[in-house]
Amino acid sequence: MTEKNLPVDDRDEQDDDNEMFEHYRLTVDPGQKPLRIDKFLVNRIDTASRSRIQSAAEAGSILVNDVSVKANYKVKPDDEISIVMDYPRRELKIIPEDIPLDIVYEDDDLLVINKPAGLVVHPGHGNYSGTLVNALAYRYKDLPLYGGDDPRPGLVHRIDKNTTGLLVVAKTEMAKNHLAAQFFNKTTKRKYNALVWGNLKEDEGTIEGNIGRSLKNRQVFTVFPEGDYGKPAVTHYKVIEKLGYVNLVECVLETGRTHQIRVHMRYIGHPLFNDDNYGGDKILKGTTFTKYKQFVENCFQLLPRQALHAKMLGFIHPRTGEEMIFDSELPEDMTQVIEKWRTYISNRNQF
Q1: Hey, how many other C-beta atoms are within 10 angstroms of the C-beta on 288?
Q2: What is the b/e burial string over 12-43, where b = at least 16 CB atoms within 10 angstroms of the residue's CB?
């Protein structure tokens, strides 16, 4: 019996991290004779070439009974095999574009980018140019991984168009497979800062609840608390600063579901500030005074997006085995709005 995530042709930026690569689980038949695992898997997985399987093995992404094996490992009866692979390339004309990137770290295997608001990560659904992938295709046109029309070369995770912050991108096939396995197995470290409406009842907590596309509006996601739909999602949060009618919170992800923080925060009654998809672009807390309404509108204009920033990213370097931790400052639009709230609360408390 084989269990796998089937490829989907029209995935867009609303996919979660696990859908950026294929994952297969197989149990070897009791009567199986010894056979190299790369040959065994080629015969079992229709979309897999031997070179793709060997690349996965080189990256440590093939496990047998929870232990990483090489391509020449010989399978035995009842072996439990797990393999994570990059999706095969899909044909889509990628136009290289000279788009500036804020690169905070780079070596021969990978780079870490501080993504600005408004930059879509990869082409699809009306965004066929001006994306991060178009920028990468221009910058790394001489690298084998970026030499074709793959719409997701080097990508192992993503953040929303209007979310800012840290993103790691692979420069080699080995690095991509290795990093993909880390995101799939949830061994990476990710912390986000978000400005949310209202005072949270608890300064620290955990939000759990399956996340899936809304059955009423397919453009947004929702929580299915009974677990009868969607995929399991876990978000840990901690209040960093209370600013009257909004709170600055830190969120740590256990899972990488689409819009996870935005959906989970709305679920507990605290939508992200100015999140137009999830109800945060209205005045949800505060007074009825005209001056207050104008103050919030001014904040919305300063921060014309959801107040969410991918602040910290940690992973194991695919070649050196070193743990790498990166941290980024909040973008200017968020810092300006936070400072305005501080000033507002300070002035209010004087009376």
Answers
A1: 7
A2: ebbbbbbbbbbbbebebeeeeeeebbbebbbe
How many residues in the chain?
Answer: 351
> Which one from 16, 79, 150, 160 is the annotated catalytic residue?
160
CB 135 within 8 A of CB 97: yes
What pLDDT, in 10s, does the model give residues 288-342? Answer: 899 999 999 999 999 999 999 999 999 999 999 999 999 999 999 999 999 999 9
Pairing, β 164-170 against β 308-316: parallel
- Rounded CA gap, 283 and 273, in Å? 9
- What SS3 class is residue 162? coil
Q: Note whether 254 and 235 are within 8 A (CB).
A: yes
pTM of the model: 0.76
Which residue would you say has higher pLDDT here, 263 or 85? 263
What average pLDDT does this structure show over 153-157? 88
Torsion of CA 12, 108, 184, 321, to 10 degrees: -170
pLDDT given at position 148: 67
Q: Is 142 a catalytic residue?
A: no
From residue 279, give the alpha-carbon distance in Å to each of 6, 199, 213, 271, 336: 33, 16, 16, 6, 22
Burial of 110 (0-12, 13-18, 19+ CB in 10 A): buried
The Cα 236–Cα 255 span in angstroms is 10
